[in-house]
Amino acid sequence: MMMAVSFERYGRLYYLDPGAHKPAIGDKVLVPTDSGPEVAECVWAPQWVPEDIDGLPVCEGIATGDDLARDESNRKRRAEGRLASRRLIREHGLPMKVTAVDFIGADNVFVVYFSAPHRVDFRALVRDLGGRLKARVELRQIGPRDEARLQGGIGPCGRDLCCATFLKDFEPVSVRMAKDQELPVNPLRIAGACGRLMCCLKYEHPLYQDFRKDAPPVGATVTSPEGPGTVIGHNVPSDTVVVKLAADGRAAPCPKASVCGSRKAYESLHGKG
After folding, report:
1. Are 164 and 8 in contact (CB under 8 A)?
2. Could you tell me which CATH class the domain 74-142 is placed in?
């Protein structure tokens, strides 16, 4: 069985093995982390899945009143650290932008994630910030992609950012992938919220490669279920090609299997004639 939790509302999903526990949607549960169990909200109740889930962290149970009080205290400390960081950055005149702040209560440590156009000497800032918060402070500079993942947002498709919801790693993305998907090579059209090439270009690329293995190219003459014509376009998500019919010039979308050269694919769709 598998369940999903989130540490922030509409934030990234983390998948767990529920173990012997049966939390409902909205329940607060304990999630094992490197700094100890943390409180998260169950957003996907335990259910059976066909995939192998060996290796997933195991839910440590339903959060108690003490766990919720500790979590609320940590949230207040994070808010305090975020406010103090921004104020001191302005006082020091540093070209830094605070992206997120984490607080490890067990070690009394603040971890401040920030973005900057170049390397920044923040030694004086760390000293002053540690004195104001009365805790050890670590500053970590992150890139545009990590900044977008931590902040979240809406992508050009109108959905939550992939990096902030389900993507675990950032894989290399190339302009070639955009060309293979027949997208305009325009930075404004193929860039995500981070300003880099959209991550979906990478994980959707194999779908386009598989489609083109047996799809007729644009300009090819084919015989469709509605008559002969010429291929004028592809629709990869729907696995169809657009054919301009020779009879009346009408553009007709047709299943790829009905016009490709594979007789087996044609027969699997229409049956043997």
Report:
1. no
2. alpha beta
